[in-house]
Write the structure tokens for this entry.
Amino acid sequence: MSFDESHKDRPARSDDRVAHRRAFLGAGVGVSVGMLAGRSLAQSDPARERPKEGDLLVRADSPSPTPLRPNDLELGALQIMAWPMDPAAKVVRDGSRLNKVLLLRLDPAILGETTAARAAAGVVAYSAICPHTGCEVVSWVSDRQLLECPCHNSQYDPKGGARVVAGPSPRGLAALPLRLADGQLTVAHSFIGRVGIQQL
């Protein structure tokens, strides 16, 4: 085989490698664009958007989204779960479990100063998702007036900003400041604090 013959295939093989590399990179870009487009669609879905100022709160277990009022919650009783709802479009923001909110009505006189400023007629609102492993905080220790996650027994003080008082949770529950508008419980500000589980 002559020198010329032995090198005839090299440009072709090099071109093949370049073509394969371009195809691989093109596929990677396509996947990335697809993922970004999917994320963008999810972010543009009003049902997945985080609570916004002016949103109303509706019971999570109600078939018809009726805005809640303070008197819909029993004083000092078990928390209820709620979703924020866009008042104009009537879109309930239940497309992400991170939007679920727990509501509790307490005597305003026992609330800490910061908590009282975020409450509406004694109603406090916090993320329903425990930061430890993402379970829902559905238990209520009535004699101590503490919220409790049933998975690993993390306890939170709703009178003091839902700070952790027992258990393995790495931080307190994110607070959702409220106000009253036409007597209805209304979101005054987006979540204060990180929502969801601990990031390792």
User: Anything to note?
Assistant: The mean pLDDT is 85. The longest strand covers residues 80-85.
